[in-house]
Fold DUF4034 domain-containing protein.
Amino acid sequence: MFFLARYLVRRIIGGPLPPTPEFDADVDLMIRDAVLREARQRVLRDGDWRAAKQAIEAAGTDWALRGYRLGVFAGLAGDDDTWLDAWMRAEPSDPSAALIWAKVLAGRAGAARGGASAAKTSREQFDSFHVLSEKAADASVRALELADPRDPGPMIRLMSSCFAAGADRLNEFYAEARSRDPHNFETHELAVMLTCQKWYGSHERMFAVARTAAEAAPPGHRTTLLPLFAHFEYAMREFAWEDRSKESQKAVRKYFRTPEVQRDCDAWIAKFRSAPPTSEQLSKVRQWMAVYYSLIGRRSAAKAVFDELGPYVSRHNEWGWFWGDMEYGYLKSWWWANGVGGV
């Protein structure tokens, strides 16, 4: 009743609301890359692997764009790999097909493990995860052998294999990936994940990796926002790891409302905003900004970011970390940003 009253007041005083975000919309509505969208439709409609190959090759040496397109096709192959199997039989030495297959195997490994904490994951899940992860790592080595030596994609995939294989070679893989594409967002995001306390590092090492990458990246680059992700990882581990209660949510908000944390986050956002974005794949980092502004109560800044995100959204984990459920956290914060309800 209270929410309805706030909604009616908002409509009367503030005018029409933007369209309520949709989370299960057609994927094509969320893909702004016209080349990729058309190729994806051809693969779905006709099983035409050549469309995927052409779209990937059209990215040239824009390795971030190439990796994005590869990831979308790997998602398709994860659901139905008939077209990918035809591609690999027709062109067994194609580096793109080899890397998609490695990504598919890695996705299956992750699905076998599940998303629960180690304490809530069964022995059978871990066993399946490790078997499939080893296969993914072998496929990644094959992709590396076939790839352009300038392409960081296979090295990124090998970095991902560290989640199962351990961090013994992480520094080697990370250094080689950086040498191929110094500011690659996916490379540095993986490094932040793998060096966090939850995996193979510490809070200090994670923040060092995030800030070093962000400092080196040019204004407008997504990598400049990785320190926000590091703050989320820290807060999740310290305040919401096994406890998603109201008390843990209060502790998270208290952390982000400290002056030093806000100065740090605001500085990186300012660097990102100080130049036009260097990528069209901005949903994840925009959601990071929306999470941050929602946690600290900056309504107008949050609304501006939600407006940039638009009506078709693939929500990210941080909403679940701090609100208990990804969709609930996103929508609750979206309504608040638009003047309805509290955050």
Remarks:
- The radius of gyration is 21 Å.
- The domain at 31-181 is CATH 1.25.40 (Serine Threonine Protein Phosphatase 5, Tetratricopeptide repeat).
